[in-house]
């Protein structure tokens, strides 16, 4: 669907940028978006003056420093980060892990905060990098608690990944397989996102019925090899997610 308003068209310029394409020339932007040259250059002027884009000779445009400034403010003000960070600190003291908070928005999920108690973080997806929706404990924890009508199109988009994990041959079958996560309140996956790493995740809720994100602990598989440790991980992650949710709901009281 094409953007309908001037604001939507302006925002579409920012949405061009991704990990796969970090630089854009005006000519490529016009070709991709179908904007007339005067329209595009008006948008580029607005975004550049706001610091959201920067022009580089012989390169084109990249994202600008205003985004870094806004990220700093986000870290200070996001209720989810503020509520979760002390919990992440405690979990990282309790387990040799990377403890992370993932926020869900639109059809994406990405880490917004993490605490690491190891020499190297146990995650292939640092803060801000969108995570896969077709594998892993975090994807399970979020998709299992989405309404079926919302979850099925996402599952269908990533169906080959779920099929490779023997989760089912159809979106309905995969969604049914995720019922166990709803029953247990948390999920665990082994080496699906990062090789040699076990992930344990639970959904996060505030006042809404759908999850706003997830809490996840990632451990080396050898540190989570026995049944007792796995059971403790599932219990602690579920309890910690409930604690964060309670803090978020208190803000609304």
UniProtKB/TrEMBL annotation:
Residue ranges occupied by any HTH iclR-type domain in the UniProt entry: 4-65
UniProt superkingdom: Bacteria
Domain IclR-ED positions: 66-250
PROSITE patterns hit by this protein: HTH_ICLR, ICLR_ED
Taxonomic classification: Bacteria, Pseudomonadati, Pseudomonadota, Alphaproteobacteria, Rhodobacterales
Keyword list, A-Z: DNA-binding, Transcription, Transcription regulation
Gene Ontology molecular-function annotations: DNA binding; DNA-binding transcription factor activity
Organism from which the protein derives: Sagittula stellata (strain ATCC 700073 / DSM 11524 / E-37)
Any Gene Ontology biological process: negative regulation of DNA-templated transcription
Protein name as annotated: Transcriptional regulator, IclR family protein
Pfam name, any one: HTH_IclR
Listed InterPro entries: GAF-like_dom_sf, HTH_MetabolicPath_Reg, Tscrpt_reg_IclR_C, Tscrpt_reg_IclR_N, WH-like_DNA-bd_sf, WH_DNA-bd_sf
PANTHER family noted in UniProt: HELIX-TURN-HELIX TRANSCRIPTIONAL REGULATOR, ICLR FAMILY, HTH-TYPE TRANSCRIPTIONAL REPRESSOR ALLR
């Amino acid at each position: 669907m094409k953007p309908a308003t001037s604001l939507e068209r302006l925002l579409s310029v920012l949405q061009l940028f991704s990990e796969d394409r970090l630089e854009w020339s005006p000519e490529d932007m016009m070709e991709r978006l179908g904007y007339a040259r005067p329209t595009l250059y008006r948008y580029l002027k607005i975004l550049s003056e706001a610091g959201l884009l920067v022009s580089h000779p012989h390169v084109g445009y990249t994202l600008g420093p205003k985004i870094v400034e806004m990220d700093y403010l986000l870290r200070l003000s996001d209720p989810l980060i503020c509520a979760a960070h002390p919990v992440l600190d405690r979990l990282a003291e309790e387990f040799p892990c990377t403890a992370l908070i993932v926020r869900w928005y639109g059809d994406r999920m990405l880490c917004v905060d993490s605490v690491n108690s190891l020499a190297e973080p146990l995650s292939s997806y640092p803060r801000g990098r969108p995570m896969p929706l077709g594998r892993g404990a975090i994807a399970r924890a979020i998709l299992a608690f989405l309404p079926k009508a919302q979850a099925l199109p996402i599952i269908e988009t990533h169906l080959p990944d779920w099929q490779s994990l023997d989760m089912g041959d159809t979106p309905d079958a995969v969604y049914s397989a995720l019922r166990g996560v709803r029953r247990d309140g948390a999920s665990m996956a082994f080496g699906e996102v990062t090789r040699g790493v076990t992930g344990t995740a639970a959904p996060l809720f505030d006042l809404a019925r759908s999850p706003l994100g997830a809490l996840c602990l990632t451990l080396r598989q050898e540190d989570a090899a026995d049944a007792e440790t796995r059971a403790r991980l599932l219990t602690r992650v579920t309890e910690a997610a409930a604690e964060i949710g309670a803090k978020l709901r208190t803000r609304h009281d």
